[in-house]
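Budget justification, computational time. The allocation requested in the original proposal was used primarily to generate structure tokens for proteins on the priority list. As evidence of use, we reproduce two of the resulting records. The first is shown immediately below.
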Amino acid sequence: MAETYLTLTNKVIARLNEVALTSTNFSNARGIQVQCQNAVNESIRYINQKEFQYPFNHAIETKTLTAGVVRYDVATTTKTVDYNTFRIIKDADLNVSGGNLKILNYNDYINSFITQEDEINSTTTSTTHTDSVTTITVTSTSGFDTTGTLFIGNEQITYTAIGSSTTFTGCTRGANSTTAASTASGVTVTQFDGGGVPEFVVRTPDNNYLLYPFPLKSFTLKYDYFSFPTDMSAHGDTTTIPDRFAAVIVDGATAFVYQYRGEAQQYQLNMQRFEQGIKNMQTLLVNKFSYLRSTFIPRTGVYSSGGVDIRSV
């Protein structure tokens, strides 16, 4: 049976010889029981903070890119991103063959390519639109050309005039061999020159990422990352840590409860066992063994010429 917030908490309570909780009274815990609940979450957080790349926290993000958008946010639970895994997914409908992205340093991007961001105007729709309306209503038309092309998802829309500070009029839907589609309110609308299929990914100073060149269609991007799980709250919640390491969680939680209570000796004893358990987890789950192969090529063939050993020359 999978370990739950309730079962882990009760294992800590048992070590302290206190009254166990049930699924019925779990949310009404008091005193030492609450300390045990808090200690379980603190133990799990501590385990996750000790190692960035536990396999049980591995995830793959699938992101639909927006035409004309350069910068993107990682998932809110992200601990670390493997930038070597960024790739565009093959899509015949979008005429993209797919492939891995190369990593570009942020300073190099600033020095050489940031002007791509000056080519883009962006706003959002302020209402819903069917796939046939010829007036597009947005938050603001400021900065857009008096006539031109809008990009919404995979649809291109040409317009003949800016009707007001919030409308584009004379729209032709599904322009340039794209398909007209209905849109919701709050959808990104862009206008730009340039763009293409992204070739580079750049880690930004705020630990998100940007793409160069920026996408001109709604390509699909994938990458691997490791998440930082949220705390458990309901009695039936489970942790991403495998059940076979439940004892490590309980060791840590027990140590933290003794710390709360000011019992230094018991805290130190349980903390030592907790730290050793984490080291064992890292050995079993994370450590990589590199196998080295010799590149030495022994010299073969004739070693003498005219009676002289050429190896000594």
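The second record produced under the same allocation is shown here.
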Amino acid sequence: METKDSAAQDLNSHYNKVNDMQPVDVADAWGLDRYEFSTLKYLYRRGQKDGNTRKSDLLKAIWYLVYAISKDKKLCGMVVELVKMHNKYKDYQDDKSEKPSNSNVSNQKRPFEHWSN
């Protein structure tokens, strides 16, 4: 007969790919609230659960972390959108084959440039 613990581990097998430690055990040991726990959960399983990409799980972790700090859902959405915009801008810059020839344009500070340091 299957125990409650073994059934839960089978159900949450995407958390066991690294080791046997479960996020809920860490949350209990560290005294995390539910938003901090959700942050930990998405960081721990990033890209491991079927149908979820690493990037989507990291964005969810960011949302919960901002909410744990601010309790402001609108701010959480804005921060996640800002990160998405940064990624799109970075992808655009990486895909460009040549720099603009206009010296005024090439000397301008690019948005999010400071994030890559």
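A brief technical remark on that second record: The CA atoms of residues 98 and 106 lie 11 Å apart.
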